[in-house]
Predict the structure.
Amino acid sequence: MDLNLPLWLYYVLGFPLLLGPLITIHELGHYLVGRWFGVHAEAFSIGFGKEVWGRTDRRGTRWKLSALPLGGYVQFKGDMNPASIPDAEGAANATAEERAGSFHHAALWKRALIVFAGPATNLLLTLAIFAGFFALYGKPVPADAGQQLTVAEFAEISPARAAGIEIGDRIVAVEGDRMEDFRDVQDAIMLYPGRTLDITVDRDGTEQTIPVLVRSVEMEDRFGNVSKVGLIGIASGASGFEFEPQGIVSSLGLAVDHSIGIVDMMLTGIGQIFTGERSVQELGGPVKIAKFSGEQLSMGAMAFINFAALISLNLAFINLLPIPALDGGHLAFYAAEAVRRKPVGPRGTEVAYRAGVALVLMLMVFVTINDLVSLPVFGN
């Protein structure tokens, strides 16, 4: 997709091309499952705030675009607001006609499935994209796995050499996890700058475990984005890969494994931010997403689609967090209702949802400011 456009225009195009479809797909998950269960949707909005454009269909659903394009919502019958907070008084005094098609009068399992359908569609989209890539290109496998895992040379600064690893050693495991190829080694090390990792090598037929202090290095990509990664200063004995053709079922299995690996990396990164191993500046909000989406769009369609899969997976993960006002918060309340055999009281529900909305808004403000101060215009 080399259109020779200025990079700023890719930023302008990339953000709506990325978030628009992902948000629409997420909200369609809620809407379609709700409609399947006979729950009436009063509004389907892409964005929050004031309505910019809209139309009402024959079922009485208002389809609209709103001013703040950082999310979306489906407001079902019986919701007090777009956050799906129930109208407890209205629900208690509802007539039979008012109960018909009301979200909060639907069976508990139906409400749970309607809520889960949003993140589920994002997960399915991610899996479909990754599976499509594996089906189209095949599975990358090392041409010579043994040579790939063999240490061929050291960098000028090499923690591996300093720790006692030698040329010809074959890396068997990192922190007890068996390595299949050199990419596994890189992935196992790059997330842990500054940590000491146990690296198991095969030397002349004998395995030995060597603790290696991982070097912390800041690396810059072609767009000037800087990330902190871990390196131990070794080079592989072979770098060639072959691509094995994959069927639909095997491609889906590989997509699941790949997605699990990404989620594991996300959880590791978030944990390191909480423990202080990584800076909060590595958190990304809407501004960084807009920047990265434009950069990926400038690199071509495949890069942009792959980035869309990553963001879709992130949306599913974030929405499943048990924070009131997010889908995961609703599911937590439904789980409590299932255990207690009655809904959480209206006062507790209202307080929790207000706190959840406040938390989400504070996080949005924080990551947006964090994004802005990290831009080059501020000297970083």
Q: What stands out?
A: The longest helix spans residues 7-36. Residues 281 and 370 are 6 Å apart (CA to CA). The first strand starts at residue 41 and ends at 56. The two ends are 30 Å apart (CA to CA).
